[in-house]
Amino acid sequence: MAKKIRLTNKLIHETLVEAVGNEALIIINFLKNRKNISEFVISEKTKVEIHHVRKILYKLHQKHLAVYKRKKDAKKGYYISYWTFNKKRIKDIVLEIHREQLTKLKERLMKEEQNKGCFFLCANACARLDFDQGSELEFRCPECGSLLQQQDNERTIEHLKQKIKELEVFA
Ligand SMILES: [Zn+2]
């Protein structure tokens, strides 16, 4: 059974940074409790330059984190877009990021299990290679040239399994 994710401020923050980048936060913070705000007002109030504001808004729109309406300004004679932040999307994005991480961890686990006890590590920690990569280099580190040592990856496997278990609770 999937557990419900509790959206803490920390989780929301991390998710937004991951999805749209740190620089979008100032605009999200300004938009989050408002509706239909002109792109020019956003620029003015956040003191972010208009071209940059548009770039960030476009990114938010791509992730469905913001919607807009375009209206022709009667006085100025050109179109202005009015923006609303779509808070409900955050939860979907949290889940999407979770699923991506889970897929990556599972792929990684598969690789570790297929090469059980057969990873080769440089003592100076510059490289970690599987058997094929290692044998190609005659088990010398590609960075520093020291002899690679065979690594027991039992703990890595356990660690990955644990992380997968933690994430699967929410998947
Ligand atoms: Zn090395």
Question: How would you characterize the overall build of this protein?
Answer:
This protein has helices at 9-20, 25-31, 39-46, 50-62, 89-114, 131-136, 154-168; strands spanning 37-38, 66-72, 79-85, 119-121, 128-129, 149-151. Helices cover 51% and strands 14% of the residues. The strands form two sheets. It has a three-stranded antiparallel beta sheet. The chain has a three-stranded antiparallel beta sheet with strand order 5-4-6. The protein folds into two domains: 9-87, Arc Repressor Mutant, subunit A (Orthogonal Bundle), CATH 1.10.10.10; 93-168, no CATH class. It contains seven helices and six strands. It is elongated and about 75 Å long. The protein has 171 residues and is an alpha+beta fold. The mean pLDDT is 93. Zinc ion binds next to loops.
What key phrases describe this protein's structure?
alpha+beta; elongated; three-stranded antiparallel β-sheet; 6 strands; binds zinc ion; 171 residues; Arc Repressor Mutant, subunit A; single chain
Which CATH architecture of the largest domain?
Orthogonal Bundle
Q: Assess the beta-strand content as a share of residues.
A: 5-15%
What ligands does this structure carry?
zinc ion
Order of helices and strands: HHEHHEEHEEHEH
For this entry, what is the oligomeric state of its chains?
Answer: single chain
**Sheet with the most strands?**
3 strands, antiparallel
Total helices: the number is 7
Q: Which residues form runs of ≥5 with pLDDT under 50?
A: none
Whole-number count of domains: 2
Classified by CATH, the class of the largest domain is Mainly Alpha
Radius of gyration in whole Å, from Cα? 24 Å
CATH superfamily of the largest domain: Winged helix-like DNA-binding domain superfamily/Winged helix DNA-binding domain
Globally, the shape reads: elongated
CATH fold category name of the largest domain = Arc Repressor Mutant, subunit A
